[in-house]
Amino acid sequence: MDAMDAIKVTYFQECDELLASLEEGLLALQAGDGDSDTINAVFRAVHSVKGGAGAFGFEEMVGFAHVFETSLDEMRSGRLDPDANVIKIMLRASDVLADHVLAAKGEGVVDAARAQAMAEELESLTAPLSDEPTVAPEGSAPEADAWGFAPLKFEFAEEPPPAPWLLTMRPTAAMYAKGHDAALFLRELSRLGEIKVSLDASMLPELSTLDPEASHCVWTVELAADVAEQAILDVFDFVGDDCVIDLRRVGVESASALPDTDQAFAALIAVAQAPLEDAPEIAATSESKTAQKGEVKAAPTAGATIRVDLERVDRLIDLVGELVINQAMIAQRVMESEQPPSSTVSLGLDELEQLTRQIQDSVMAIRAQPVKSVFQRMPRLVREIAGSTGKQVRLVMEGEGTEVDKTVIERLSDPITHMLRNAIDHGVETPAERIAAGKPGEGVVRLAALHRSGRIVIEVSDDGKGINRPRVREIAIKKGLIGADANLSDDEIDNLIFLPGFSTAAAVSNISGRGVGMDVVKRSIQALGGRISITSQPGKGSTFTLSLPLTLAVLDGMVISASGQTLVAPLTAIIETLRPKPQDVRALGPTGAVLAVRDMHVPLIDIGMALGLRSTPIDPTTGVVLLVESEGISRAALVVDEIQGQRQVVIKSLEANFQRVVGIAAATILGDGRVALILDIEAVLEKRLNERLPPLARAS
Amino acid sequence: MSNDHTSDGQLELISFRIADQEFCLDIMAVREIRGWAPATPLPHSPAYVRGVINLRGAVLPILDLKSRLGLGACEPSARSVIIVVHIGSRLVGLLVDAVSEILAADLAAVQPTPNVGCDTVGRFVRGIIAQEDRMISWIAIDDIMPSEDLAEAA
Hints:
The complex is a heterodimer. By secondary structure, chain A is an alpha+beta fold. In chain A, 44% of the residues lie in helices and 20% in strands. Chain A is flat, with a radius of gyration of 34 Å. In chain B, 14% of the residues lie in helices and 46% in strands. Chain B is built from 4 helices and 10 strands, in the order H-E-E-E-E-E-H-E-E-E-H-E-E-H. Mean pLDDT of chain B is 83; it is low at 1-6 and 149-154. The relative contact order of chain B is 0.23. The interface between A and B is medium-sized, with 29 and 26 residues.
């Protein structure tokens, strides 16, 4: 059963890829840049999903895939024009097929009514196009179920019923070696119609001389059903030459096939009767044949990709992370031993450092993936949201090939989903509103990915009505998020939607406002060291911009010290560093102090105190100030004792063995082997503002 | 072999001293014992959390067992040791003065913890093992980590 499960897992992996290429193909057809190759690819995808489903006995999926395949076949043969309406139906059909796959996986249920309606819709595409008079399907096909296989089966209706098919099926040992089972083919054939199977076991040797790995049985199947030759051959699609098939009509002597068959029979009988000593040789030849076949098949794919268990890659990345730390430790020891920089040890170490960096980059590249795997789920989402809100939306995707670390990819799906929901639900207007505003009835939502200064940027923009600023402001005042007299810029008003407890939807729809607001999205993104913001133009639309580090395994940080502790501040949060002059430090009120930076006055925060490392703050003028920016609270000046330098650090989770610590994002291991904490600037600022710490030292 | 012992009611324990009292842990929970290394303190954590150290690339939290048991803070010296234990899926280091020995005890001979009117004792002592005029407290480590709420509040 384990082996079967393993094959199933592979099948489902393939299904995901096939469904993706199905959708991709349909979208290409929709966009008008598809050709006959695209149609063929789409057809093959559905056909392969169906093939595997049949082998595992997922009856409902086979039924639906069959109807789908039929309509695609019509399209392939040019009888069905792939116009916009047809493609729309097929896109929805691909969603239903995906549901079937999920259900087969045990991860979901198929809405039977929806599937049924979908199947009927697909059939309606093909039925009127058939030139043959449509004969009532009832009764004629014993297996005609809800899916209605009937329209396909009546192509020969006007001809006299042809003689039954006679099929000889002679599996080779190679076929069994690949995990195929003759019984499955018989079951598959029985699906086509009534079959009479006889087994020719005459070649079975005595038990004492039986080679259990060899193939000895031949089946003869008489199939009464009136089906196309191709339909029968399709059953054996997946075995290729591993099973010798002879197919003809009863009474038709296939002149070419018969002598061949006889020869093959004779050869097989010879094999079966061969003395035992010959057996290894035979096994060897059949093996070499298999090997040859394997090579031929593997050749086109070998250069492309291999499947690797993600755990192995992760382990490798962990090890390389340790190698980097170790290399830094050795470097530090060598430096402490005061070797001259030109010594062979130092030179060798430089080379080692370069190599380690290259290894690290290459290993990270293994885990890098195009964002396509996330993007390809979105067209369906957009279709469903547009459908349930009664809006017409076209999704345009750009930069699907942009690569980012797998750990980041996994975290992209939720925020993108949320941003798209927002764009369609709140941004894009109804067709009537759009036309009244002089825009085309169909809204356009753009989803784009790009690399910008070492980060990945995801943009979701719509051409809708933009943010209703007076309304946002009004709600924020009503909910007490801002003061009634707050003087906010347009940008600041737009970004109010990220505040906790803010929701603008007048009526809570089941799309947005499902309890998860933009504040949650923002929080989860910040936890990853990312940023999210929105810009909007009234009447023209809004753009969400989300930026994330390319990897969650390493971080560019500034190594600082405070109260004798070494800390790391993420470089992305730091705008600038400076040594404050006494005249720039000013007290504000009884508990606060601010630093004048050019024209701005930003609050001063002693990092040692904020983390509880010391009880009295240091004089800011004796230390260094990091000017940091956080989304919600704008800017602040963090006072640290000293800046040690800037370097890339390997991120280690604190939660793995401990738990979340407020103000700390993660930990890392420095060159001296000690653990240094990575600051969560956002949380430090938030905590500082909530707690009202004692006043900072005033510069005299 | 040790597994066989536990299954037939035999316990294998590792004993150590804290402030002149004897304690022990189930040896099956112990992964390794290592010397003291200065820890990086964690902000906003209870006093008994000494901080984190680098255990071959993993970040290991160190708890001061003496402080956790309410016996005062431990002053780590060169003789202090860290007992690395599994608590669920986590690895945690326990700072103790010194490890004494490995001893075997009959599970049936473990006496229930006497009520001395102290929450800490009730919470962290699973039972009492009496051997050759000694009294060894068997520590329950499952509850020894600070709760998440506590960390939030601290």
